[in-house]
Amino acid sequence: MSDSAVTGETVLIKNVLLYGEGEPTDVLLGDGVIAAIGADAGKDATPDAEVIDAAGQILLPGFVDLHTHLREPGREDTETINSGSAAAALGGYTAVFAMANTSPVADSVVVTDHVWRRGREVGLVDVHPVGAVTVGLEGKQLAEMATMASGAGRVRMFSDDGHCVYDPLIMRRALEYSSSLGVLIAQHAEEPRLTVGAIAHEGPTAARLGLAGWPRAAEESIVARDALLARDAGARVHICHASTAGTVELMKWARGQGISITAEVTPHHLLLDDSRLETYDAVNKVNPPLREASDVAALRAGLAEGTIDCVATDHAPHAEQDKCCEFAAARPGMLGLETALSIVVQTMVRTGLLDWRGVARVMSERPAEIVGLDDQGRPLEVGEPANLVLIDPDAEWTVHGPDLASVAHNTPYESMTLPARVTTTILRGRITASDGQARVRVRNGRG
Ligand SMILES: NC(=O)N[C@@H](CC(=O)O)C(=O)O
Ligand SMILES: [Zn+2]
Ligand SMILES: [Zn+2]
């Protein structure tokens, strides 16, 4: 139509509840942004607009994952940027941060720019590379953070995740350097001297099962130390995968002191505890380890009140031979991208701890703010980027590892029936996943 205000591809979402609130309305997407909201939003739709009947569904800003392992380069037998992007889109994510513990390590602009470019080529989700803090994740020498930050991939988060930046002097320098660069350091808080040989949470379960323990203090001592180092450096620090009640307490204390510290919690630490270890099934092996029910309760409460800022998946694909083996020999980590929303609904929404606006806060708005993405986690308003997720809150589905988009199948939720499902994910106005299928871009000359 020649008088149409919107050109190119348009998507019309009908009868949707914004943030799960109020009356159903229509939302028109065009030119990569939210073009109109309201009963007459469809009047500017192009004749070939894709119309989504979203009755009973909820619209939120697309999710942002600050902690994803995509395994490319190096372990493409477990995940690739292609397969991991599909998993992310199916999980409702419009941006993910790909951790640096690849092979080679993402400690140079060559690797970080490669990851960024591959992500753009795939086009299902914005893949932001995380740069290593230290060369080879070895904790000895700072990586060239400035070069990575000014590359095409514009690295804005640095982490040695998988390893702790344990040397306090190196961490102090990294924080000072990061604050002058305006980037974020994300710490895998694990004092390595306290976790030598550790494979499970140190507590009664591990003692009974004969598994060497990973004490809470290994995490908490680093959280406390880094809060003080961030304070003195005038820097920001982000705590990866908070797992203990003590970490929640320390976060509260540090915030009270005015320290710039943020933290994430994983879906698995919100749902699972160390009683899962009884079977010795290594699918439950993860760093930090599944803790006790009291920690799970404290993490949920901390997330609800904002002491823990956000949910991050720590999506960690592993090959069958690295998981289906004796517990001590297995690699730690579990899949998370496609199940994250459902676990958050089960643990936080069904329990009354968060409403849907709260889900938007912990899965989209806060992570985008923490890392400084200005095109994600935005309000559902006209003119804002159309990075969105549609959710059927009443759906139920049963998890089967082989049905997930990831190359590896190590989900701890195998055969569990979970609430709520992502029905559609939209990146800059383009549908990247719908009804369980990732949609690769069709190059028809229009974008
Ligand atoms: N979480 C894990 O248990 N494993 C992660 C590394 C990490 O997040 O520490 C991995 O890369 O597999
Ligand atoms: Zn980690
Ligand atoms: Zn990780």
Would you kindly provide a written description of the structure presented here, covering whatever features stand out?
The protein is an alpha/beta fold and 447 residues long. The chain has two domains: 10-59 and 383-438, Urease, subunit C, domain 1, CATH 2.30.40.10; 62-371, TIM Barrel (Alpha-Beta Barrel). 28% of the residues lie in helices and 21% in strands. The protein is built from twelve helices and 19 strands. The strands form four sheets. Strands 1, 2, 3, 4, 5, 16, 17, 18 and 19 form a nine-stranded mixed sheet that branches. A five-stranded parallel sheet has the order 9-10-13-14-15. Strand 17 and strand 18 (430-434) form a beta hairpin. Helix 6 runs parallel beside helix 7 (245-256). The radius of gyration is 21 Å and the shape is globular. The model has no long low-confidence stretch (mean pLDDT 96). The structure holds N-carbamoyl-L-aspartate (NCD) and zinc ion (2 copies). One of its GO terms (cellular component) is cytoplasm.
* Helix segment tally: 12
- CATH topology (level 3) name of the largest domain: TIM Barrel
- As residue ranges, the low-confidence spans are none
What's the CATH H-level superfamily name of the largest domain?
Metal-dependent hydrolases
User: What is the number of domains?
Assistant: 2
Shape descriptor reads globular
Give a count of the beta strands, DSSP E runs of length 2 or more.
19
Q: How many angstroms separate the termini?
A: 20 Å
Task: Provide the β-strand percentage band.
Answer: 15-25%
- The value of Rg in angstroms is 21 Å
Per CATH, which architecture of the largest domain? Alpha-Beta Barrel
Mean pLDDT across the residues is: 96
Q: Summarize the main sheet.
A: 9 strands, mixed
- CATH class descriptor name of the largest domain: Alpha Beta
Helix content: 25-40%
Structural class by helix and strand composition: alpha/beta
Function: Catalyzes the reversible cyclization of carbamoyl aspartate to dihydroorotate.
Binding site for Zn(2+) 1: 67, 69, 161, 314
Pfam family, one: DHOase
Domain Dihydroorotase catalytic: 56-244
